[in-house]
Each structure stands twice: as C-alpha cells, then as structure tokens.
Amino acid sequence: QSYCHRLQHDMYFLTSTSRLNEQVVDKIVLQLNRVYPQILTNEEAEKFRNPKASLHTRLSDLLKHLQKKGDRHCQEFYRALQINAEQLFNDLPSRKILKTPDPTEIDTDKEQYMLNDRGPVFFLACFSMAAGLALVWYCCNSETEVIGRARRILGFSPIIIGRHVRNICMLYLEDMSRN
User: Fold this and answer.
1) Please, what are the averages of pLDDT over each run of 10 residues along the chain (179 residues)?
2) Is the pTM of this model over 0.90?
3) On the chain, which terminus has fewer CB atoms closer than 10 Å, C or N?
4) Residue 87 lies in a domain
C-alpha cells in the first residue's frame, strides 16, 4: 500500500479533535520544510503554520497538499509524525492494518469482545441453572440425610431465591421425605 493511500486512510483519524495539537503540527511542518529533500517550501510552510487559520483546516490542507505531491512527500510526513508524536503514529489505523498482515489471524481485541457479548443476564441464567442442578443432585442423593439440611438451607433463602420458588422446593422436599 502506498503512503498516499495510507495517508488518505488515516486522514480522518489525524484531523479528528485533540489528536494533534498546534505545537506538534508546527514541528511536523518545520521538519518537512527543513528536511532534505525539502518537502515544503518556505511559503508553503508559512501557510500551514498560519495561526489565523484553525488547526483542523491547516492540517487538512497539509495532508491534501502532501497527497497531491506524491508518495515520497507522504512518506516524509509519516517519518515526521513518528519522530514528533510516536504514540499517535503507533495508533494510526493504517499501522494496525500493517501489524496484522495475515487475514486469517485472530485479532485478540475483537475476540475479547466477542466472548463477552452475552451480558450479565446470560451469566445469571447460566449460574442459576448450575445452582439448581447442583441443588437437585444434592437433594436426590440417597446416601446422606439431605432433606433436613436442604430444608434448613431453603428456609433461610428468601433473599437468594423468590418466595414462590422456595415454596415449590419446600413442597418437593416434603414429598420426598414422605416417600
């Protein structure tokens, strides 16, 4: 992928609010003005450093100007961005694409969200099902005297499970104790 295409891809990310501040943009413009070969002429550098224009406008104009100039100019912009704002350079969308060249590779950030997309209701439903099955298994075990213990546990659990569910469980335990 050419640097011009990468810059076009990263343009929205770079021009969004509070990504680049005035000082960093000025440093980048000065570096592009002073690097060999000179990417920006003195007049162009003054235009892109004009404090009367908004930062968003100056940065957008600079990126469009560099795209028109060609791939070498865009490459020098990326080099200046890396030197002056390395963290932002590493967070660029085009850099993230370059870091995962294999399309079959699993992106761990997306995978983390995909595993956790069910929400707390799903967790509570699964936990309730497991607790219910454990209670039934515990109550159906004929080797120990479970009925008395289970009755004590269910008797003190109006907060944990609802009153109607508790009454049904108590009736079931009383039926089991009669049999």
Assistant:
1) 88 83 90 84 90 89 92 92 91 77 52 57 78 73 58 55 69 76
2) no
3) C
4) yes
